[in-house]
Predict the structure.
Amino acid sequence: MDLVTGGAGFIGSHLVDALVLSGKKVRIVDNFSSGRLEFLSHHDKNDNVEIINCDLLDLEQLKEAMKGISHVHHLAANPDIRLGTEITDTDLKQGTLATYNVLESMRINDVKNISFASSSAIYGEADEMPTTEKYGPNLPISLYGASKLASEALISAWIGTFGGIGYIHRFANIVGPRGTHGVIFDFIHKLKNNPNRLEVLGDGFQEKSYMSVRDCVDSMLHLIENANESVNLYNLGTGDTCSVRRIAEIVVEESGLENVSVEYTGGKRGWAGDVPKTFLNVDKLLSTDFKPTRMSEETIRDTVMQLIYEIGLK
Amino acid sequence: MDLVTGGAGFIGSHLVDALVLSGKKVRIVDNFSSGRLEFLSHHDKNDNVEIINCDLLDLEQLKEAMKGISHVHHLAANPDIRLGTEITDTDLKQGTLATYNVLESMRINDVKNISFASSSAIYGEADEMPTTEKYGPNLPISLYGASKLASEALISAWIGTFGGIGYIHRFANIVGPRGTHGVIFDFIHKLKNNPNRLEVLGDGFQEKSYMSVRDCVDSMLHLIENANESVNLYNLGTGDTCSVRRIAEIVVEESGLENVSVEYTGGKRGWAGDVPKTFLNVDKLLSTDFKPTRMSEETIRDTVMQLIYEIGLK
């Protein structure tokens, strides 16, 4: 049986879908801080899907949940990078300490395989673009990025010390249906609140890679079959980028709204800890014969249409 | 006033000596888990040296200790790398969480400068020798290494989010007087217990760089004056290596003992999580016009002589 932490969340619920489709039994652990039961409601009648309401900081409950598991997909985390500028222990607890508890409960239950959702945020402001997995030093500038790098290090150390196999995925920006945060989500909510004005944090020239959530979970499962190190570390992304200005344009276009004034707060970053440009080199992923079905702008437009529907802007 | 966490420990007490010599006022925070008051006894009558018995996990007491500080030298940590194979939360608490508390108490008190004792352990089993600061990915294989990388990431994220200046020092093996752990310390204690037999963990072909503790603290202070980034990351070492077999030879020679049977437990590493070979590229340090006074073998022989005296083998 596979265990998905954060399985009721945005990426987690899509991973559950993919695992179920491949015939796996799945146990979900989620504290429903940002996850939602409705993201899993289509599995209500499926005996292969089990949901446990558990916070990963509860080590005793987690040890119980780990029984009978062969592979852990550890996706639970605080999804709101910006929150670290205000509350400094959220990423420490929901990121680093949660990962420690996952690994410790795996060790005690002799569970040997873990896939982990890391992030391009670990690269901080890299001076090599596109950025390969070999780039260093890794100097994240957000508390979220620090918790992801700390979690990578814990996984690597656990495997080096106690054995096992790890898959560390450094995600680009992942977007798609059921999105609960991020720039597209924010823009649509802003237009819902005020159809005449769209405030963009920063100068809008921030530029990042966007990967469809379905390509993301497909590549995660592809790598379990096709990567053969004890620690398998891969950038997951599309190999191109899109600017925040272009995203704002697409959101306004797809909203059908007219006379929207797009206003920029200025400065090269949206908030302290925001990395103005991220661009992952994904050659290593492509070398395993995985090809994303959508590039950045296409998946942004798909997502805008889906979230406009989900959020109810139209 | 400067604050030294772990200031009663091996490296910390030498740093306190150097700071005092340069005319600084110094506050020491130590929980005396491995630090010793006797390492500071020569400062007993010096009003410029203040000692606070405080565990870094006590955030409230640490916030108090941070008042009036302009530069933090964060050296406190669990010094016993091997311990992580048995107790999995020591490095998490005494490393990662302690660093979080140091940074949070700095933020609250508006303290902007931090030097941090990181380690070559963050490189794990690097496939580039000598290893530069740009080497990646960083996949530590010990829980100690994971806590050092997590702490680096926290410092970088704090500076990226809240401002400040950081000096991250990736130490080679640091040796010298007042050593409380490590291979030389262990060998001398073993010979004290049994003068006929010296057990060496692993095959003895493990090979690492050894830097004198005085060169180490001198280079730390040199970099504060000579490095000008917001995050200044430097390998600290000597640019050469010495094998464990050679260390065993030197210990036996200097002990004056005859008929010592040196026995190897075999295997390429001393324990799970031991990195068989570490060799830091220190060109970046040398480029700041710092030159270590001693290379590895010379500083090992000095240390052997000093610790034979301190431990009382002769």
Q: What stands out?
A: The mean pLDDT of chain B is 96. Chain B touches chain A at residues 84-85, 88-89, 92, 96-97, 100, 104, 107, 122, 124-125, 133-143, 145-147, 149-150, 152-154, 156-162, 231, 233, 272-273 (CB under 8 Å). Chain B has two domains: 2-174+211-236, 176-208+241-278+295-311. The CA atoms of residues 234 and 285 of chain B lie 6 Å apart.
